[in-house]
Model the fold of this input.
Amino acid sequence: MKIKFLGGAGTVTGSKTLIESNGIRILIDCGQFQGIKTLRELNWEPLPILPSTIDFVLLTHGHLDHCGWLPRLVNQGFEGKIYCTSPTKDITKLILLDSAKIQEEEAEKANKEHFSKHEKAEPLYDLAQTEKVFPLFRVVKPNEEVKLDAEITAKFSNAGHIIGACSIELQLENKTVIFSGDIGQDDDVLMYAPVKPKRADYVFLESTYGNRIHPAEDVKLLLETYINNTVQANGTVIIPSFAVERAQTLMYLLWQLKKEEKIPDIPYVIDTPMGISVLDVFMNNRHWHKLSEQECIDMCRMFTMNTDYQETIATIFDKQTKVIIAASGMITGGRVLSYLERYIGLPETTVIIVGYQAEGTRGRKLLEGAAEVKIYGKYYPVLAKILEIEGLSAHGDQNDLLNWLSELKDKPKKVFLVHGENEPADELRLKIQEKYGFNCSVPMMGQEFEL
Done:
């Protein structure tokens, strides 16, 4: 059996792990690279193997860094089956269509305003190419054994993180190989705790927060404080948010604060069409999360939901103090950019960062104290307050990741630490070796191992 790391190694984006066994090729995740330009440019590179030779793609979940390269894969010849859970299928469709639309719009804008370095800016993929992905989906239920081949089976187990997210267990060549996908927090506001593996010969574990412990902070109290302080200053609160799970978690917490009369009666706006669509996925898959149908309905009533861009423009120029939740979560694109163009230069504005910010993203730069930020080819001074709430992360921290390994009955032959920058991955490697004595390795992009 050969394993090759085509992405998500030494970085938290572009997850792609190739398994080759007895002539069958399986790709675990097919993510898009995000962040610094050298990573983003990898999205334009062909895979080191022909996509037409891949038999299956198994998706752990529907975030762009795990599914966002599927249109390129299909466009370059992949015709196999894509296995995932029902919510992951729904989320992936939303994410890919949104991604294609944004790329088409940004290419058009770059060509119109001449801020691209290329003679003609092209989208990575368009809507027509994206539509070709969807007929290849095959839905699997959690804990159901799926026969990929006479000698290969797959099983998906809940990983928390976002709705539909799973770890994947493969049985092949008399070995058990487990891919964690992204692991959620054990005490997440909306998601159930991740299912821990009982036995494995090889484990591929994410390490996004491998060197971090989420602070024991009162997330609700921080939201309450930041909002009330901004309202007193007659400012606007902007929360860049991932459209899946994070936006819904923020809605839930703000709804709780409003019910408890701890935040004022001002406009609360969700401005992410995809995040609004995700609410339907939540309603249709209630066994995947902790909210009842009535809670979903009551929570939604509190918010103004912007779907049309004209509504976004009206909200931007509305002078009253307000709270905006807008995608994207790392401020790499989406409608949050339109809000920041107008508000980032105002000292009464508060920007609350509520999730992981990959290297090279605008979100990371703001957290690191950037004095100015580039949006659509122009620079804007950063005078707004940039605050962070770490406890809202959909990723488990170092303790959660260590805990996820705690029920393994026998020592795995090896644990590979993926989907993390080098420093967090290496620190987690040392912690795992110290706590469990497991043989750990941090693979590099492009490396290949025989198991």
User: Anything to note?
Assistant: The chain has a mean pLDDT of 94.
